[in-house]
Amino acid sequence: MNGTLLARTGTNVLAYGSTIVFLIPVYVLINLAFRPVDDLTTPLIPTTRPTVDNFVTAWTTSALPSAILTSVVVTTLSCLLVIVLATMAAYPLARSTSRLSTTTFYVFLIGLLLPFQLALLPLYFQMRDLGLLGTIWSLVVVYGGVHMPFCVFLITTFLRTSIPLEYEEAARIDGCSDARAFWHVVVPLLRPVIGTAIILTGVGIWNDFFTPLLYLSGSSQLTIPMAIFQYVGQYVNNWPVIFASLIISMIPILTLYLIFQRYVIQGFAGGLKG
Amino acid sequence: MTVPVTGDAARVRAVTAPRRRRVRSVGRSLWWFVVPGAAFYLFVVLSPSLQGAYYAFTDWKFGEPAVFNGFDNFANVFQNEAGPGAIRTLLIAGVTVVAQNVLGLGLALLLSAKVLGRNVLRTIIFAPMVVSSLVVGYLFKYIFGPTDIGAIDLVLKSFGLPQIDFLGDPTWALSIIIITIIWQFTGSAMVIYLAGLQGVPEELQEAAALDGAGYWQRFWFVTRPLLAPAFTINLMLGLIGGLKIFDQIFSITAGGPAGETETISTLLYRQFSQYGEYGQAAALALVLAIAVAILSFFQFSFLRRQERKA
């Protein structure tokens, strides 16, 4: 019995020990953000004069307030677009066994292999010609397309493996049209996979820096990573203020993460498997 | 674009493949549902990617038309900075993948044991995964910042030890980028291993324990084989992510010192935005695309095989 007790204590110590080591950077981040700018003691020692001045400075002098709004709008619109279109597309792809349907599905899968960098240049000029450069619409269109293959793949696979045809057949026998059967029978059953798709694409879009760096540069509409990038360039080496801005930028996504942590972790573990 | 098969074709199909008929009858009037999604995909991904692949073989520059020039871009770019850049990209991808898997598996084993409040610990360790890589990059840029400013240097100073100019030294700078990536993405590897560990039946472990197998023997002969899919997924995700790495380098070193931490993605961005060398940027993108495609293909075919076995 003593042996298991020892092993259990050892496991606990090791688990908490690794978590503490893991949290050191976070501690430095928080400690520095609450420190007066003129406090130059070692960043590992908690500050003796905590202040929220850095947060006030960061909030009032950075583009973060409007950038948070922009990020919310861009992420919501893009997710909505991808999820609606991918769910629609997945239905005939999963249910039809015609050769054209299987081919279309495989063409979508090619998109999973292509890194965004390849499409980047031609797409940039395409956006310029459409007059969308510098507007959030360029981002919505780009995200809409870039995340489409993954969501189509995820939802089609789920439809094929987890939703038996009998539900739709029953609805048909009861006199339901195909469209109504889709909307009232199939879509509600898709809720788990749609949740996973929203989490994975949403987090990806929210944090993406490369796309706005190209498509929004020079514009006044910034997403959060762009606002942080600009702010760091502006406040070089004023780390307490920069760190306050970093914390502000993380609050929205971390709050959502903590509320939905079980689903987020499950979504990542399940969704990334493909 | 699943045009419904009608008329003779449908009748022939119905005779030759009677099992399929029933399936096709459900929802077949909704074939057009695929059109909007496919249109977006075509316009944003497929067509620009094909054009991008073509431009890789042209001397397209800012303000100049694109003329076909064969493999000149590849020769040009790889003889200059992209050669070392490509090797560096592979190095970053390789080292981060190994470290993430070792640490991720270790943490998964720890946090699947009976640890007090293990869900809280899992939540904490996974958290960096949902935060922007750019933000994490800036955090580590300060921690390993210049002498008399960076957190580590200030700690060294307070102990009277010599300070190190981490980001001014190429080897250190590259190591710090790698450390940052590992810190952020170990949680992701852990979570995938945890999901894999859930699939290991309790009875198997107990049976092995009854037969006298110790902890490590049980891990090696019972758990490890069942974790093979999780391992492959982590390997591929890590390698693909590592090859595309951009945000962390952009925020921590911006490719410096003296271009010693440039990777394919940062060079590509520079060729495009600073030099207007579109053809050369496209060549870099194509090389990246081929590397990523090969890895993704391996991952996909492996998972398909797993699925069929299951």
Q: What class do helices, strands and sheet pairing of chain A give?
A: mainly alpha
Question: What is the beta-strand fraction of chain A?
Answer: under 5%
- What is the typical, i.e. mean, pLDDT of chain A? 88
Detail the poorly predicted runs of chain A.
Answer: none
| Head-to-tail CA distance between termini of chain A | 43 Å
The succession of helices and strands of chain B, N to C, reads HHHHHHHHHHHHHHH
* DSSP strand tally of chain B: 0
- Overall form of chain A: globular
Number of helices of chain A: 14
Structural class of chain B: mainly alpha
User: Ranges of chain B with pLDDT <50 over ≥5 residues?
Assistant: 1-24
Radius of gyration of chain B (CA) equals: 25 Å
Counting H and I runs of at least 4 residues, what is the number of helices of chain B? 15
Greatest interface by residues involved: A-B, 97 and 103 residues
**How are helices and strands ordered from N to C of chain A?**
HHHHHHHHHHHHHH
Give the amount of beta strand of chain B, in percent. under 5%
Please tell me how large the radius of gyration of chain A is: 24 Å
Largest sheet of chain A: none
Number of strands of chain A: 0
Characterise this structure:
The complex is a heterodimer of chains A (274) and B (310). With 274 residues, chain A is mainly α. Chain A is 79% helix and 0% strand. Chain A is built from 14 helices and no strands. The radius of gyration of chain A is 24 Å and the shape is globular. Chain B is an all-alpha fold. Chain B is 71% helix and 0% strand. Chain B has 15 helices and no strands. In chain B, helix 4 crosses helix 15 and helix 14 packs antiparallel against helix 15. The N terminus of chain B is likely disordered. Chains A and B meet through helix 1, helix 3, helix 4, helix 5 and helix 6 of A and helix 2, helix 3, helix 5, helix 6 and helix 7 of B.
